[in-house]
């Protein structure tokens, strides 16, 4: 039976949203929480962008040490031989998604006659083959603007990707023009190619989750595995993307989905509320009060009939339990006097804060090393560090040091690559 998996793209599509961004430590924490949530894959960033390199390598090391659970870490680049070679040279990623536009609008509108539809397929095939030759284990091919692409051409494109060795085809509703009925029919036809399909829907008409789920159901009914693309809190280019938690909840609880659709990932929803609050805080975007599952009003009842009904039996007005999505708390701040640590903190404060979360340092040398990293991390995020960030720093100092530093790949200085370290850091772990 075909199954549904989840690919989170917060660290790629989410951070592309105009005007907002995440620090590398925050992107790392998103991967950490996604690993706990149990989704299949995180599109963690851009291997061809120089400042992503140490972050990507540090996250791959953390994954090898079991910090990310079974989460697959995958990078995004353009479907060109040049980008694939750059990604392979710059990082040790084993999973890539390669993106190219497929609609007549974008092929003409972006390439202005330099590349035609036939060349789009030829170039994509070369890029997939280059990735496979370089040892990339899974290659996803992203058909940008698939929803405005002539279906016959899209089928030809998907078949060529499959024949070249790609594992998945990403159906991108890049401008959010899809409707549930339309996407359902197209995915049913596209699925005949027999390649697993990724649903990647934007929310310009407010239908991203509905379109994603409709497309996913069509792929399942046609017998191919489907990989739902989504972001935490639905962030993403323009009006955003399908919200990850809404997609999971829909597949768990909605009519004709819950209990009927088989999830391929072992989802543990008890981390969902913490993840949503962490991402909202890190982006500096408060959660809307009606955000599905995690907004402030989602389990609040005031009007007479509703309050009375819930007090008698919460199932009168609630679809699932509050506890299902776990706690929201990110920092353990006691009542009364508060000691914090950070950019300008010292050893005594650091020891006190860490004792509160159950970590005692072996000696002063270790405490000083962690203090240095805490100072750097706080200077880097410019936000009070959360309990889980402090724990990650103490347990994996070498990887945190790496992700907080930036390789200067270009320009090359005297033929040698150099590393720009934060002040006072020793070595590059
Ligand atoms: Zn997108």
Average pLDDT, all residues: 93
Overall body shape: globular
For the termini, the CA-CA separation is: 45 Å
- The total of beta strands comes to 10
Structural domains: how many: 2
- By CATH, the superfamily of the largest domain comes out as Aldolase class I
List cofactors, ions and other ligands.
Answer: zinc ion
What is the CATH fold-level name of the largest domain? TIM Barrel
CATH architecture of the largest domain: Alpha-Beta Barrel
Which structural class is indicated by helix and strand composition?
Answer: alpha/beta
Q: What helical percentage do the residues reach?
A: 40-55%
Q: List segments where confidence is low: pLDDT < 50 over at least 5 consecutive residues.
A: 411-418, 420-429
Helix/strand order: EHEHEHEHHEHEHEHEHHHHHHHEE
Question: What report would you give on this structure?
Answer:
This protein is an alpha/beta fold and 429 residues long. The protein folds into two domains: 4-267, TIM Barrel (Alpha-Beta Barrel), CATH 3.20.20; 347-420, no CATH class. It has 15 helices and ten strands. The strands form two sheets. The protein has an eight-stranded parallel beta barrel with strand order 1-2-3-4-5-6-7-8, surrounded by six helices. The chain has a two-stranded antiparallel ribbon with strand order 9-10. A hairpin with a 2-residue loop joins β9 and β10 (416-420). α2 packs antiparallel against α15. The longest helix is centred in the last third of the chain and has 18 residues, at 364-381. It is globular. Residues 411-418 and 420-429 have low confidence and may be disordered. Bound molecules: zinc ion. Zinc ion (ZN) is lined by residues 13, 200, 202, 236-237, 241.
């Amino acid at each position: 039976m075909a199954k549904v998996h989840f690919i989170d793209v917060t660290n790629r599509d989410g951070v592309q949203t105009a005007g907002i961004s995440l620090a590398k430590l925050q992107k790392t924490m998103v991967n950490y929480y996604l690993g706990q949530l149990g989704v299949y894959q995180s599109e963690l960033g851009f291997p061809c962008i120089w400042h992503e390199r140490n972050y990507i390598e540090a996250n791959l090391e953390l994954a090898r040490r079991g910090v990310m659970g079974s989460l697959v870490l995958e990078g995004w680049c353009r479907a060109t031989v040049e980008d694939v070679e750059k990604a392979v040279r710059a990082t040790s990623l084993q999973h890539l998604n390669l993106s190219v536009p497929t609609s007549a609008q974008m092929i003409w509108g972006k390439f202005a006659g330099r590349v035609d539809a036939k060349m789009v397929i030829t170039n994509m095939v070369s890029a997939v083959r280059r990735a496979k030759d370089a040892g990339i284990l899974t290659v996803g091919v992203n058909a940008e603007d698939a929803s405005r692409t002539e279906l016959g051409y899209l089928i030809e494109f998907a078949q060529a990707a499959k024949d070249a060795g790609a594992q998945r085809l990403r159906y991108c509703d890049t401008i959010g023009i899809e409707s549930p009925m339309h996407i359902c029919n197209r995915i049913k036809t596209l699925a005949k190619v027999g390649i697993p399909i990724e649903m990647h829907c934007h929310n310009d008409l407010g239908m991203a989750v509905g379109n994603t789920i409709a497309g996913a159901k069509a792929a399942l009914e046609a017998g191919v595995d489907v990989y739902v693309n989504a972001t935490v809190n639905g962030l993403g280019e323009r009006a955003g993307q399908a919200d990850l938690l809404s997609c999971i909840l829909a597949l768990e609880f909605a009519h004709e989905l819950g209990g009927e659709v088989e999830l391929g990932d072992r989802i543990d929803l008890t981390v969902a509320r913490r993840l949503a609050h962490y991402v909202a805080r890190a982006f500096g975007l408060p959660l809307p009060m009606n955000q599905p599952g995690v907004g402030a009003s989602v389990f609040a009842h005031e009007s007479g009939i509703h309050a009375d009904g819930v007090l008698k039996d919460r199932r009168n007005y609630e679809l699932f339990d509050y506890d299902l999505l776990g706690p929201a708390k990110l920092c353990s701040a006691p009542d009364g006097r508060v000691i914090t640590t950070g950019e300008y903190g010292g050893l005594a404060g650091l020891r006190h804060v860490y004792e509160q979360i159950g970590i005692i340092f072996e000696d002063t040398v270790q405490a000083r090393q962690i203090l240095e990293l805490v100072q750097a991390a706080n200077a880097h995020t410019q936000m009070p560090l959360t309990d889980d960030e402090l724990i990650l720093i103490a347990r994996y100092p070498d990887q945190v040091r790496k992700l907080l530093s930036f390789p200067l790949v270009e320009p090359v200085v005297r033929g040698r690559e150099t590393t720009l370290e934060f002040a006072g850091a020793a070595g590059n772990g």
